[in-house]
From TrEMBL:
This is Iron-sulfur cluster carrier protein. Keywords: ATP-binding, Hydrolase, Iron, Iron-sulfur, Metal-binding, Nucleotide-binding. It comes from the Bacteria. Gene3D superfamilies: P-loop containing nucleotide triphosphate hydrolases. The keyword Acetylation does not apply. It comes from Alteriqipengyuania abyssalis.
Amino acid sequence: MTSNGQTELETVRKALPAELAPRIISARQREDRWTLVVDGEGLDAPARERMEAQLHSALAPGGGDPAPAIAFMGERVRRRIIAIGSGKGGVGKSTVTANLAVALKRAGVKVGVIDADIYGPSQPILLKSEDLKPEAEGETLQPVRGVADIPMLSMGHLVAKGRALAWRGPMAGRALAQLFEANWGDTELLLVDLPPGTGDVQITMLQKFKPDGAVIVSTPQDLALADAARAGSLFDQGEVPILGLVENMAGYVCPHCGEASDPFGSGGVERAAGRLDLPFLGRIPLSHSVRESSDAGDPVALGDTPEAQAFHAIARQIAVAEGLAKA
């Protein structure tokens, strides 16, 4: 506090022109010298020099006092949020999310993962971080680091392994807010693994942390497609652009005889995308390697197999859609 009861930040802001004052983030005075942290967002080098001259003039007029020490903050990260939803459980949405995160990271995108499935978190297993616990600075969580050094947070990191959560909607909403409001640093794209359905978690996210886009995952069968359509309707109501549909568990090749079959049908998601006039992002085969790598916390997208390439192709389309890669 200054001698007249004002904070040092208030004192500095009152000494500056109205258009400049909000740029001052923090101010400290030690032995008559000011130390300032200034928001430099949107300012090129000449503009920063002009602002620095204004601050010198206001706080050290005539050069009589020590010139202020000024640190400009860099550009704020424009963090995008992509929701991965399905409307139905058991379609492999979490596996798709984990592999897309790895594929995006390999493509040079600074990606993070939020496991928003409060009651059934699986990302700690899929991204091999289930034994990690996030630290907190004040009330702000610090994400843990999973496979490929991907920052991530899940309720699975915050509760004892195997413990069931019997929370009503408001408690789930507050838990979700903690995950979104964590210190995500320079992460530029957050993938949000949503729980099945269209319940409290989805509604809370749309109201408080509106995604920039959504990806819908479904198997080819009609029942899964009906639930996926309901998930799409929820995003439409929330005015969230749907980036496209992914067909998971699309076809199976027997590793012994090589015969191909379609236990869940074939092409249903692509046809649905055509009917809805939405992009079809691609299909992921039903594969032992995807299942085994997921259980081991070693996502198949870390490699270059045909299954991995399917995830990489979808990830590239997402990165292009969000302006994080060139078409």
